Amino acid sequence: MVIEWLTFAVAPEHRETFIRVDHEIWTAALSQYPGFISKEVWISPDLSDQVIAVIRWHTRDQWKAIPQADLEQIDQRFQATLGAPYRLIDAREYQVRRYPSP
Fold first, then answer.
1. pLDDT over 90, % of the chain
2. How far apart are the C-alpha atoms of 61 and 22, rounded to whole Å?
3. What does the longest C-alpha to C-alpha distance in the chain come to?
4. Domain 2-95, second-level architecture
């Protein structure tokens, strides 16, 4: 399993709208692609200007197989619907490693 970890800077007054629109557009779109497992959105009471998205994929190849044109189209819909500024401040990738118990 691969984790896509995205951290966004969002004005506190737009955070709930960002989360709702993200679910309606990004989560709905990504869930249609092979390899998508789940997505969670994390917020911290101490960092009201940040939103973290944690997306789980079966494999990196499946995640990276999403056409760039599709991602751009989804992002354009998201930006137009959100109507508020935000920026991606961190993007990371993790592999989930599990070892058998002794």
1. 94
2. 23
3. 53
4. 2-Layer Sandwich (3.30)
